Amino acid sequence: MKKTKSSTMEIASVYIGTVIGAGFASGQEIIQFFTSYGSKGIYGILLAGVIFSLLGWAILEIVYVRKINDYRNFIHLMMGEFLGNIMEWIVALFMFIIFCTMLAGTGALLRQQFHIPMQVGIFLMAGLSVIVFMYDIKGIIIVNYILAPLLLIGGILLGIYIIVFRDVAVFSSATSIFRLITRNWITSSILYVSYNTITAVVILTGLLPIIHSKKEAKWGGILGGAALGVLGLCVGLGTLIYYNNIRNLEIPILGIVMGYGTFAQYVYFFVLIAAIFTTAIANGYGFLKRVSMEFKMPLKKITPLFIIASMVFAQVGFSKMVEKLYTLFGYVGIFEVLVILIYFISRKVNKIKKRILR
Description:
By secondary structure, the chain is mainly α. The protein has one domain (2-357): Amino acid/polyamine transporter I, CATH 1.20.1740. The chain is 84% helix and 0% strand. It contains 15 helices and no strands. It has helices at residues 2-19, 22-26, 28-33, 40-65, 71-114, 118-133, 136-164, 168-178, 185-204, 214-241, 243-246, 252-257, 262-295, 299-313, 318-357. Helix 1 (2-19) crosses helix 7 and helix 4 packs parallel to helix 9. The longest helix has 44 residues, at 71-114. The chain is globular.
């Protein structure tokens, strides 16, 4: 029983750690995909949490039942060889971009918080990532198992703190503006989950060694998705309250906590660095693994060139990457999400039909 609970939490932790990156924890993603729609954005966050849970359950159960041990086998099962190969390279490109974004996020954070040159932050995160890459998928699992629960707890406590001790005047002025915003929060929510799923699938399909039953697969996915929804809600409410003051900042949540005590600032700094780190290693490793398999080269030989290229691209800037590139890949991710859900639901329906016919 204890082993089952431990494995479920391990699976959920990897899921959480893969999705929560610099864009999420900084408030950039939440503002651009949800808060910009005003109070309706909160409904979007709740919808995203539900979809995350369903997708996590679907992906992990398929992995366990079909004994899939990597993304290639998973995507070829879903789409066939031709479309599967195309999707593999699209996903690889996206993982490279996200890794660059995490490096840029580190640089932006250290520059905004400590006035340290952006290049220093980029170099530090790149170095830490290389260390984890040397331990293969085990390194990714261990780091997420340690940091994801701390990320979740720290993020929720910070969100509650901001909401409880909010500036009422700021809140009132913001809500009057939000009433004028009438864009489609449903579409934005689907896009948000879709581009996050592109990366999450790659990591989740490598978790077969720690999934021991369909029950673990199901609850690992559901709990991970639910946790993402709860944390997103806390961040969303905080950015909604202070939208006017933070919408133009690279690290919006940091702009909020700077108005609070030192304790809140340090808690947030840890949460954000941990979030950047977990997503950086997940995406960087996923990209390296794909290139290594394609060109039949050892991962250690590819890593130096990958790191140099990533550090160069990271100079583009954090908020620009989130705004321009993430939405584009969100549309690509919708196709993948639909394919996964159709496959998963059709299997469930066929099982029900067989039971009825018996």
